[in-house]
Design a protein that fits this description.
With about 100 residues, the protein is α+β, with helices and mostly antiparallel strands. About 20% of the residues lie in helices and about 30% in strands. The strands form 2 sheets. A 3-stranded antiparallel beta sheet has the order 3-4-5, covered by helices on one side. Strands 1-2 form a two-stranded antiparallel sheet.
């Protein structure tokens, strides 16, 4: 299976505890990058979540693994009471440069 031309986004729902005792569910989108490995499979990174890296044998498996890695990453941040990074306000641009190879 070929990597899709568009960068996939993983949607994740998180639950916040509001001061008045109700839970608030919020959906967050995360951009993931899949890199085809020479030995096979795909390494996945989540640029907005430093250190959030996983692997899958196929593109589909890599996306499933990315969703799990993001969920665990966010759960860990919530347990520590840390802010959850989002991609709000993020601008993305692909820059092409010439280099001698």
């Amino acid at each position: 299976m070929a990597i899709p031309a568009r960068i996939p986004f993983i949607r994740h729902r998180i639950m916040y505890y509001h001061e008045q005792g109700c839970n608030i569910m919020r959906s967050l989108n995360y951009r993931i990058l899949l890199r085809k490995e020479p030995e096979g499979g795909y390494t996945v990174t989540v640029p907005t979540l430093p250190g959030c890296v996983t692997y899958g044998e196929t593109v589909d498996e890599a996306i499933v693994m990315a969703r799990e890695a993001i969920e665990l990453y966010i759960e860990h941040l919530q347990e520590k009471g840390e802010e959850i990074p989002t991609e709000e306000g993020l601008l993305e641009y692909t820059l092409t440069v010439e280099a001698h190879a």
